[in-house]
Amino acid sequence: MPHPPHLPPRLLVADQVAGRISLLDLPDGDERAALNHRHLAEHAGFLALPDELVACVDDRAGELLVLDPYGPDTGRPLVRRRIPVAVPAEHLAVAPGGRHLAVTTGLGRNEEAWNGLLTAVDLDAPDGAVAVRVRGRTGEPGVTVLGGASPLVVLRHREPGELLVHRHRDLMAAPPSCPPVEPVRRIGLPDDDGHGDAYDPVTGRVFAAAGSGVHRGRHDGEELTPEPPLPWAADGRTGGRGYYLRLDPVRRTLWSCVRGGPSAPGRWPEWTNDAWWHGLDTGTTGRLELGPGLVFRLAVTARHIAYSRVHPDGDELILLAAPAAPGARPHLTARLPLPAMSGAPRRGGTPWDGVQRRAIAASPGAGLVAVSRGGHGEVHVFDADRAEPVTTLALPTPLDDGGHLALITAGDGAHADLVGR
User: Fold this and answer.
1) Domain 10-416, second-level architecture
2) pTM summary value
């Protein structure tokens, strides 16, 4: 549905602990809508869909929510659709076109894998949105949904590492009561530590990050053919691995952060971090040092790539200028300080458990970057093009664990990245 011109950017702010999702105008922070008693599946994140819609999973209600961030402007509710899915949701992905989705399950608040349920969703079935649950291998699988006349659901498992390929239509045709399903193909991986997934529908390649590199497969019809992996080493920098992959639809680039250094979690301030990228059309790969500490997820703006770095000596937002011409390379443009978090990770402790974190978001159609301040109920908004802060937004809940963010700009093409972030 077309939107009125000159709509402002919108920011979705989820407090998965408090159970609230806020929809804010940017940059002024005016609240346009709010959802209470909604606990976002933070690891699965927000998934951009066509027409500026956004999908996410309510991990307590067991529902896939299709949100319409510009709906309140014309009297429509923020929640466009609610579809039951299996939880706790681990990953969320969609095929090109925005119709066929898949949701995997993980540990949730449990110590080990126990579930193995996979939900296939058809948002445009003849009788309305339909979801089907099936049972497969337990674990914490990543997922991509490959497009075409017969979309494929590719699950990335670890211990042992493998890719499991299912036909989406077969999953949708499964009988009730969560029957077990077998993949149409298994592709073994040499690593048991996969973490991070992406899919490029232009080249038909699916990517899976692991210790030895980025494993690749090429989609052709109903086949997925393995290809040589991409190495993490580049530009004379070696060691470490990425735990996250992000497709940049503007520059058609695959991005990650390569983490190296000591393996002990208590020594996280010594971890090294490099921005890593791979040109999907050029085949060039590069690395650039970001600094020590905790760096994980990243965000894509119209002209920059943004990382947040947490360290006992001070947190910061790091901006890289994305290549604007053939042959150009990313380069660092700014390091902007972030206010400290009172519950931040400390030296000697792990950076994961019982500490505050930061979420980061941007839109490939705008220059704004949003970074949360976990435990303080604040979101800092920056102008990446000017490399300066714009405002600090105050939320009604603490944003414990950092919350989760999605920044939407009308017509930004974010739905070209087909995995929840």
Assistant:
1) 7 Propeller (2.130)
2) 0.97
- The answer to whether the bond into 190 is cis (omega within 30° of 0) is no
Buried b (16+ CB within 10 A) or exposed e, 121-144: bbbeeeeebebbbbbbbbbbbbbb
Interval 211-233 mean pLDDT? 97
- Is residue 14 within 8 A of residue 42, CB to CB? The reply is yes
- pLDDT tens, position by position, 383-419: 999 999 999 999 999 999 999 999 999 999 999 999 9
5 pLDDT band (50/70/90 cuts)? low
Tens-digit pLDDT profile for residues 252-264:
999 999 999 999 9
* Segment 219-226 long-range contacts (CB within 8 Å, at least 24 positions apart): 219/146, 219/148, 219/152, 221/148, 221/150, 222/150, 222/152, 222/167, 222/184, 224/146, 224/152, 224/154, 224/163, 224/165, 224/185, 224/187, 226/187
The Cα 205–Cα 247 span in angstroms is 12
Helix (H) / strand (E) containing 117: strand 117-122
Residues found in the chain: 421
The domain ranges of the chain are 10-416
